[in-house]
Design a protein that fits this description.
The chain is α+β, with helices and mostly antiparallel strands and 520 residues long. It has seven helices and 23 strands. The radius of gyration is 62 Å and the shape is elongated. Keywords: Coiled coil, Membrane, Transmembrane, Transmembrane helix.
Length: 520
């Protein structure tokens, strides 16, 4: 037993208090809670920090802004006098000039200044000797061309008759057929004539032989006559023999001629060509006659233009020419002389050219009622604004406004001085029950930009800190402080970009450097 005790190692039962006790059980942790969840929390904090400090890292355009100038509109009762301005009475829309349509020298003036005339009434006459001669020459040429037309018409009628009834071709064809028949008859009778001539030749030869055998029983004269008859019979035979090829050749030629005439009668080539030429000559003659007629009309028009007539019914405003003066005529290429003869105007259509101060221009509207006073009338007369010009007078610091005169009295004349009182027009704004005046928005005129789509202005979006471009509708004219009224497109809380707007675009990030106020 002692031996077993000595073999036990009691050091294994000792406990080491310096090292922690490791548990044999290990807790298995998920990769989702170990890596993904902490990483997501970290990314969220980084994104939140980047969003909070984005203005420090992202580039932004430095700008200055100014608020919209807001005022209360003063609503005036319709017909209330707004302001007064001086002007001059003139024809509406402009004076009318009676011009010479033809060049020439004035022979006589038929009207005087202030005279009432009707449309088409003569106002002056020009020397018309050359025009009368030109008319006579044109009429003579027209008569000659009409004769040419009649001659061409006669030739055309003859050509149509020839092609409808070609008698000449029919006669030629009949003659050719007659000669062909005659040649054919002679050719058919030739064998019989040749046989008769040969018989006559045989008889003449027998007669000569008998008489030669008779010796001195017959006289020499009878023998010579018999020999002469034989020679004649032989010649006749020879002639008939030689005539056969000639007749056949003649027959062939006549047959070809007949066929050609028949084909020509069928085609009518020459007659068709003659008809086409006659039609062309008739067309040429007709066109020349028409040209001559137009020259006659031109000469008549030129002669009629030797009398200058009034283009309207109205009153003579001024005499622009005098007797003996050369007129170049309307449309003349020469620069010498003028074509104006008389200045006219319609007394029922007058207007006032008013010089309105620039500070009063915003109160002017098209159709606005006015009152016109002149020294020639005991009481004002009514009128209305019809247009506002686009060019201002720099020296007088005014802008011209055109005011139509309603039913102008006969005593009113152009170039009379007048004083125009502009009245308040009907206001489209309906007052609220509280009686507050409507708001009017003004912006510096220099901030308004012109583009193809209209007027626009750069506005700072303070919420998104970006630049926006808004389309606006502005009023006419500017105030003394350089402001223009914005009728539509802005709200009172908008901030206008003043500096830096040249380099911004739609959606550009902006940083407001300062916010100066615009004093009206």
């Amino acid at each position: 037993m002692s031996n077993k005790t000595s073999q036990l190692d009691l050091s294994q039962l000792a406990v080491n208090r310096d090292q922690p006790v490791r548990s044999s059980l290990r807790i298995k942790r998920s990769w989702l809670t170990r890596y993904v969840l902490p990483g997501g929390i970290l990314v969220g904090f980084v994104a939140l920090f980047a969003w909070a400090t984005r203005d420090s890292f992202l580039p932004a355009q430095s700008i200055t802004v100014t608020p919209v100038v807001v005022t209360r509109a003063v609503i005036k009762q319709e017909g209330t006098p707004l302001f007064q301005a001086a002007g001059w009475i003139e024809p509406r829309p402009s004076p009318v000039v009676a011009s010479s349509l033809a060049a020439g020298v004035i022979q006589e003036m038929l009207v005087i200044e202030g005279q009432h005339i009707t449309k088409g009434e003569p106002v002056a006459t020009l020397i018309d000797t050359d025009s009368k001669l030109a008319l006579a020459q044109a009429e003579a040429q027209h008569t000659l061309q009409q004769a040419e037309v009649r001659r061409a018409e006669a030739a055309l009628a003859a050509a149509k008759t020839n092609i409808a009834k070609p008698f000449s071709l029919q006669v030629a064809l009949a003659d050719a057929e007659t000669l062909l028949s005659k040649t054919e008859l002679e050719l058919s009778n030739l064998p019989y004539a040749l046989e008769a001539a040969q018989t006559q030749q045989v008889l003449a030869a027998e007669n000569v032989r008998r008489k030669e055998n008779a010796g001195d029983a017959i006289t020499g004269r009878i023998l010579r006559e018999a020999r002469a008859e034989l020679a004649t019979a032989s010649n006749t035979v020879n002639e008939l023999v030689a005539r056969e090829p000639l007749l056949r050749s003649q027959f062939k030629s006549l047959a070809q001629k007949r066929d050609a005439l028949a084909e020509n009668l069928k085609l009518l080539t020459d007659e068709t060509r003659a008809l086409a030429e006659a039609e062309a000559n008739f067309s040429v003659a007709t066109a020349r006659a028409e040209q001559a007629r137009l020259r006659v009309e031109t000469a008549k028009l030129q002669l009629d233009r030797m009398v200058v007539r009034s283009p309207i019914t109205g009153c003579v405003l001024s005499l622009e020419a005098r007797p003996g003066q050369w007129l170049s005529g309307v449309g003349s290429s020469t620069n010498k002389g003028s074509s104006a003869v008389v200045g006219l105007y319609d007394p029922k259509n007058l207007q006032v050219r008013v010089d309105v101060r620039l500070e009063d221009v915003p109160q002017v509207q098209i159709g606005q009622p006015v009152q016109i006073e002149t020294a020639a009338l005991p009481a004002p007369i009514a009128g209305k604004v019809i247009s506002v010009t686009t060019l201002a007078d720099i020296q007088k610091n005014t802008l011209q406004v055109k005011v139509a005169v309603n039913d102008p009295p006969a005593v009113i004349k152009p170039e009379m001085l007048g004083k125009v009182t502009f009245l308040a027009p009907p206001s489209p704004v309906v007052e609220e029950s509280l009686g507050e005046s409507p708001l009017r928005l003004f912006v510096p005129q220099t901030l308004v930009m012109e583009s193809e789509g209209g007027k626009s202005i750069w506005v700072a979006d303070l919420t998104g800190k970006i630049a926006k471009r808004k389309s606006v509708e502005v009023g006419r004219g500017a105030t003394e402080g350089g402001l223009v009224e914005v009728i539509n497109g802005l709200v009172p809380t908008d901030k206008l970009i003043v500096t830096g707007r040249e380099s911004v675009t739609e959606g550009t990030r902006i940083r407001i450097a300062s916010e100066p106020r615009y004093e009206k």
